[in-house]
Amino acid sequence: MHATYAERGLRILGFPCNQFGKQEPGTEANIKEFAKSYNAEFDLFSKIDVNGEGAHPLWKWMKEQPKGKGTLGK
């Protein structure tokens, strides 16, 4: 998707999280190396929580937005 639409302004933001089936158990360095091995060209941010008390503020905000009526994409 990135390769196809990056020229048109698409930005993919990767936020590693270990809260979904323990898919990201490694350190940030491990995750970065893994992404690099696949020639990932998207922006990769620090490992965060997206659920619960410790959820990152960005994800808390996104979850509060009404479906189809938020400001994302405008």
TrEMBL record:
<dbReference type="GO" id="GO:0005634">
    <property type="term" value="C:nucleus"/>
</dbReference>
<dbReference type="InterPro" id="IPR036249">
    <property type="entry name" value="Thioredoxin-like_sf"/>
</dbReference>
<keyword id="KW-0712">Selenocysteine</keyword>
<comment type="similarity">
    <text>Belongs to the glutathione peroxidase family.</text>
</comment>
<keyword id="KW-0575">Peroxidase</keyword>
<keyword id="KW-0560">Oxidoreductase</keyword>
<dbReference type="InterPro" id="IPR000889">
    <property type="entry name" value="Glutathione_peroxidase"/>
</dbReference>
<protein>
    <recommendedName>
        <fullName>phospholipid-hydroperoxide glutathione peroxidase</fullName>
        <ecNumber>1.11.1.12</ecNumber>
    </recommendedName>
</protein>
<dbReference type="GO" id="GO:0047066">
    <property type="term" value="F:phospholipid-hydroperoxide glutathione peroxidase activity"/>
</dbReference>
<dbReference type="InterPro" id="IPR029760">
    <property type="entry name" value="GPX_CS"/>
</dbReference>
<comment type="subunit">
    <text>Monomer. Has a tendency to form higher mass oligomers. Interacts with FUNDC1; this interaction promotes GPX4 recruitment into mitochondria through TOM/TIM complex where it is degraded by mitophagy.</text>
</comment>
<dbReference type="GO" id="GO:0004602">
    <property type="term" value="F:glutathione peroxidase activity"/>
</dbReference>
<dbReference type="Pfam" id="PF00255">
    <property type="entry name" value="GSHPx"/>
</dbReference>
<dbReference type="GO" id="GO:0005739">
    <property type="term" value="C:mitochondrion"/>
</dbReference>
<dbReference type="GO" id="GO:0006979">
    <property type="term" value="P:response to oxidative stress"/>
</dbReference>
